[in-house]
Write a structure and sequence with these properties.
The chain has 301 residues and is of the alpha+beta class. The chain contains eight helices and 18 strands. The strands form four sheets. Strands 1, 2, 3, 4, 7, 10, 11, 12, 13 and 14 form a ten-stranded mixed beta sheet that branches. Strands 15-16-17-18 form a four-stranded mixed beta sheet, with helices on both faces. Strands 5-6 form a two-stranded antiparallel ribbon. β16 (274-277) and β17 (283-290) form a beta hairpin. The two termini are 29 Å apart. 37% of the residues are buried. It catalyses: uridine(55) in tRNA = pseudouridine(55) in tRNA. Its EC number is 5.4.99.25.
């Protein structure tokens, strides 16, 4: 009698390779974990590498509730060239000698793009304009405007400025940068806007995401490593890391899992989803406080 394969429940923190879409990584993980129930929390551009959070089996129910609101990146911005896509994947649309741009001007430009700012996403982003993806409209040669939206850039630092010569002979500057920002911030739009502010154009040539919410690059595994050994953060551990924790006794655990709305302490008011644990650290549910009662968002126990 053959044993039925059971995929583990939990989060998988992937170190995404360059050239893969987030959907490609999900498809690959379905093969590795041998289950169709795989989803991702937040996308990462094909050119970019680094932290991509996947959910396997029941952990897919966690993904929509994860507050992955802050992200951290390291990357390289090239000053002196604009591209169609605001990154190295698009064709160059203009070149300008950037050799006279000073470090003081760069720092002033970076300061302008730090804090709460209004940002126009890249034209080849996945933003929907009247129900159609922006990149689809751009590909079809449409002329259209993307409204600016509020984002937060908590930190934007330049670690190194390197002089270089582009393939077309233009003197360019390559900036090694790190950015901590809110979800929905486009790093390639920061590169574009920094270059525009300095009058020489700019685009992103490399990007690596080092953190998403509480999940860091140190915990991430490459697809090859995961093929060798599937490393899954158990669902209870993932929930405890991502949400406030509420421990309840066996009697209340039974009531909760039977659909009874329990009285919930005031300390959880307004805190969003809370991970509810029963005896022996058993993860039971995600719930939020509504008028003093626990409203279940997803039940696991």
């Amino acid at each position: 009698m053959t044993q039925k394969h059971t995929a583990p429940d939990g989060l998988v923190i992937v170190d995404k390779p360059s050239g893969f879409t987030s959907h490609d990584v999900v498809a690959k993980m379905r093969g590795i974990a041998r289950t169709r129930r795989v989803g991702h929390a937040g996308t990462l551009d094909p050119m970019a590498t680094g932290v991509l959070v996947l959910g396997v089996e029941r952990a897919t129910k966690l993904l929509g509730h994860l507050a992955l609101t802050e992200k951290e990146y390291v990357g390289t911005v090239r000053l002196g060239q604009n591209t169609l896509t605001d990154d190295a994947e698009g064709e160059i649309t203009s070149s300008t000698d950037a050799s006279r741009v000073t470090r003081e001007a760069i720092d002033a430009g970076v300061a302008e793009l730090t804090g709460d700012i209004m940002q126009v996403p890249s034209r080849v982003s996945a933003i929907k304009i009247n129900g159609v993806r922006s990149y689809k409209r751009a590909r079809e040669g449409e002329e259209f405007d993307i409204p600016a939206r509020a984002v937060t850039v908590s930190s934007f630092s330049v670690y190194d400025v390197r002089e270089a010569v582009a393939d077309d002979g233009t003197a360019v500057l390559d900036l090694v940068v790190s950015v901590v920002c809110s979800s929905g911030t486009y790093i390639r739009a920061l590169a574009r806007d920094l270059g525009a502010g300095l009058g020489v154009g700019g685009h992103l040539t490399a990007l690596r995401r080092t953190r998403v919410g509480p999940y860091k690059l140190e915990a991430a595994r490459t697809l090859d490593q995961l093929q060798q050994e599937l490393t899954v953060m158990p669902i209870a551990e993932a929930a405890a890391a991502a949400f406030p924790r509420w421990d309840i006794d066996a009697r209340r655990a039974r009531l909760l899992t039977n659909g009874v709305r329990l009285e919930m302490p005031d300390e959880y008011a307004g805190s969003g989803p809370v991970a509810v644990f029963g005896p022996q650290g058993r993860f039971l549910a995600l719930a939020e406080q509504q008028k003093g009662k626990a409203k279940s968002l997803a039940v696991f126990g």
